[in-house]
Predict the structure.
Amino acid sequence: MSEKATQHFIEVYEETCAALPGAGGWLARRREAAIGSFREAGLPHRRMEEWKYTDLRRTFEKASFGPAPVHEGAVVLPERRSASAFATIDRHVLVFVNGRYRDDLSRAGHLPKGVELHVLDDVLHEQWAKDLVERRFDDARQAENIVDLNTALMSDGACLRIRKGVKLDKPLHLLFVAQDAGASHTRNLVLLENEAEATIFETHIGEVASFVDVVTDIVIGDGARLNHVKLQDEAPDAVHLATMRARLAAEAKLSSFTLTLGCGVSRGQSFVLFSGEGAEASIDGAYALRNRQHADQFCVIDHAVPACTSHTLFKGVLDGESEGVFQGKVIVRPHAQKSDGRQMTHALLLSRDAAMNAKPELEIYADDVQCAHGSTVGELSKEAVFYLRSRGIPEAGARRLLVLAFLEEALDLAPHNQAKDALKLLVSEWFGEAAP
């Protein structure tokens, strides 16, 4: 068992820790504890059940990423529609280049009273930020080594706090650009107090060999609501690891949607804990992969209290030699009666060399519940293609229509109408490029 990749990140920490935010304070001590835990556990690998389809040790032995440099000059966005997918939507924008905030490129505008928007270094003295960074989930143990790596090396991030009863006036767009080759480690913190509301867009783009490591910690108070739309479209030789950890109080609602188009190897992890009755969470997404892309979606939803509802749906199309993964678990704790948890994944293979691995699970310790899970993997219907061709539609166009119809059920779950339309256009253009 090689530890070369793990040791590389430990050496990066030793070389850069003195210059990272929070040096000399509580975060410095937390970083030391995190790198110690990471040193002991190492990078996840195939012999770990939760990582059996995505071996990070092998990934980072093939491609070693040093720290991405601080980029202070002009930024050239990729010439792809994903770079400007949300451009026509009125929104606040925070731009991060190589994982670091760029004030000159950002446009936050006038924020409503009660909305606090900062970067990581500015909130480290506040207790709420400390609580989110130090928090651990009992049932996110399989992610802790990745979170520990992020905690040790995080250099920046967006921090949003919305006071009780306040609504963010328009979406907040977090735009992450990989401009130069290397690794970036970002930590986003989101706290919505009781009855607060917000919509967050998150875009990751780049055309260089990069390692994007992002952890987003979320706390949603009583009756508060958070909508989240994420778009990932990075370079074929990029690695993307994203972990979202969310805690929902009574009657809170979380709607999160992810569209994955680009990246060589990606893994998105979502951990949702219901801490108050009547909460709702939807963790959904779609993906379109080609060539040798690998995308892994991992989701754990913990019904720790009664009368909560969760919904998870991921749909994807795979072309070339691409590989998709979905691993999900719904946990219903003892006494968490009236829980409703549903988890489903569907994949469409456009090539005989493409592959899909699906492993949805239910872990139920209560009897008065409604839970379901399932998965399907299939090919395009030859009969449906023939039907469309018989009506004068070329084969490529027929295949494109069927693929878009297949993905539309998932895309319709994006919790913002204008963003939903933008994502549908991206998927349409993706298939147009990939069609035979």
The two ends are 42 Å apart (CA to CA).
